[in-house]
Write a structure and sequence with these properties.
- Helix content is 39%, strand content 16%.
- By secondary structure, it is an alpha/beta fold.
- It has two domains: 3-31 and 297-404, Aspartate Aminotransferase, domain 1 (Alpha-Beta Complex); 42-294, Type I PLP-dependent aspartate aminotransferase-like (Major domain) (Aspartate Aminotransferase, domain 2, 3-Layer(aba) Sandwich).
- The strands form four sheets. A seven-stranded mixed beta sheet has the order 2-8-7-6-5-3-4, with helices on both faces. A four-stranded antiparallel beta sheet has the order 11-12-15-14, covered by helices on one side.
- Strand 5 (165-171), helix 6 and strand 6 (196-200) form a beta-alpha-beta unit.
- Helix 3 packs parallel to helix 4.
- The two termini are 25 Å apart.
- Bound molecules: pyridoxal-5'-phosphate.
- Pyridoxal-5'-phosphate binds next to helix 3.
């Protein structure tokens, strides 16, 4: 190993150094990505010398911020292959995007006895909003099983679909197993019975080239902080026709056309879904993050991270003391269990070695139940990861084994 082929300069990421100035082997990118300097600079300028609120001001600075905010929306649209920036709704994150769909489209289009299909590997954000909707409407949740290697079983999905299926909502990439969904096939299947499909793109947006037209999904959700941007901003994409017919989510400023006590009318999408002062600085920083990622090339990101995942799986296998979860071909995310060591203990010892992994249920408790474990250790790569991070992780695991020997 120690071929330190890297996609970008680690030096672009000030967060990859410990407070003592040592190298930090950050292997928790699936939870949240470190930020490159251009994103930090964009955020800092937007909060500092460029700052003003948007949409309301008649003064120049506000007009400039408004065009920066709307340029960010166009940049997102272009990055994900949307037909128009009006299909891009800024939200707080993927969680809010999914809740928005459940509360608006779901409350008007899903009724008693209708079916919503999820899968065993979903993040809680793509389970709980649908359970809440089901409680309110009397709809039923059905769970699509996984193949033995941890992919969503599209054969099983096909068999589950009926005219009562109104929504299929699936992770494009699993945050625990790294499994990549054949999203287009899932969309075609859902559409074959007239159901809509929502893709939770939280782990796909930072790792894959996205093209809404080619995916042919109905809703797509992701978070900015996993895409090397700031927290507090995410994206809900939906086609114009769908958005047009969805009622507002929250009420307040900015989402209205005209307010009167005898009746209020609403703005067209996407503003209809963006009540209140928006995440101005976050949108501008997200724009910078997308520029950064796009310049490297999403296809190269996928190739880079899946290669690192394959290398790590090989190294872990050599120990003969590790259970590996998920498919061999993973989008840069590797979950495992080390014999005789609780993932939390492993995570704590690795921390002493300046290696950060995640230990826990990863907000996917039904998947943990399915795997028969309370928690897994998870190493997830980012565009700044390289073999030196795998070397450090393996050294830390060897030390842990000696301690628990
Ligand atoms: C697959 C998946 N879906 C949804 C989420 C929720 O994202 P957020 O907490 O940014 O809203 C995450 C975050 O871990 C995720 O990995």
């Amino acid at each position: 190993m120690s071929d330190t082929a890297t996609l970008t300069r680690k030096a672009d990421f000030p967060g990859l150094v410990t407070q003592e100035g040592e190298v930090w082997h950050y292997l928790d990118t699936a939870a949240s990505a470190q930020k490159p300097q251009p994103v930090i600079d964009a955020m800092s300028c937007a909060l500092g010398k460029d700052y003003a609120t948007v949409h309301r001001g008649v003064y120049g600075r506000s007009a400039q911020m408004t065009s920066g905010y709307e340029a960010a929306r166009r940049r997102v649209a272009n990055f994900i292959g949307a037909k128009s920036e009006n299909e891009v709704v800024f939200v707080r994150g993927a969680t809010e995007a999914i809740n928005l769909v459940a509360a608006t489209w779901g409350m008007t289009r899903i009724g008693e006895g209708d079916r919503i299909i999820l899968s065993t590997l979903e993040h809680h954000s793509n389970i709980v909003p649908w359970q809440m909707l089901a409680e309110r409407t009397g709809a039923k949740i059905e769970v699509c099983p996984l193949t033995p290697d941890g992919q969503i079983d599209l054969g099983a999905l096909e068999a589950m679909l009926t005219p009562r299926t109104k929504l299929v909502s699936l992770a494009h990439v699993s945050n625990v197993l790294g499994s990549v969904l054949d999203a287009r096939k899932a969309a075609d299947l859902a559409h074959s019975v007239g159901a809509k499909i929502l893709l939770d793109g939280c782990q796909a947006a930072p790792r894959m080239r996205l093209d809404m037209e080619a995916l042919d999904c109905d809703f797509y959700a992701f978070s900015g902080h996993k895409l090397y941007g700031p927290t507090g901003i995410g994206v809900l994409w939906a086609g114009s026709e769908l958005l047009e017919h969805m009622p507002p989510y929250q009420g307040g400023g900015a989402m209205i056309d005209k307010v009167a006590f005898d009746g209020t009318t609403y703005a067209p999408p996407p503003q209809r879904f963006e009540a209140g002062t928006p995440m101005i600085t976050e949108a501008i920083a997200l724009h910078a993050a997308i520029d950064y990622v796009d310049a490297l090339g999403p296809d190269r990101l996928f190739e880079h991270e899946s290669r690192l995942a394959a290398t790590l799986r090989d190294e872990l296998r050599k120990l003969n003391a590790v259970t590996l979860f998920g498919p061999e071909e993973s989008a840069g995310i590797v979950s495992f269990a080390l014999e005789g060591v609780h993932p939390h203990d492993l995570g704590t010892i690795l921390d002493e070695e300046n290696v950060a992994i995640r230990a826990g249920h990863h907000c996917a408790q039904p998947l943990m139940d399915h795997l028969g474990v309370p928690a897994t250790a998870r190493a997830s790569f980012g565009l700044y990861s390289d073999e030196s991070d795998i070397d450090a992780l393996m050294r830390g695991i060897e030390r842990t084994r000696r301690i628990f020997g």
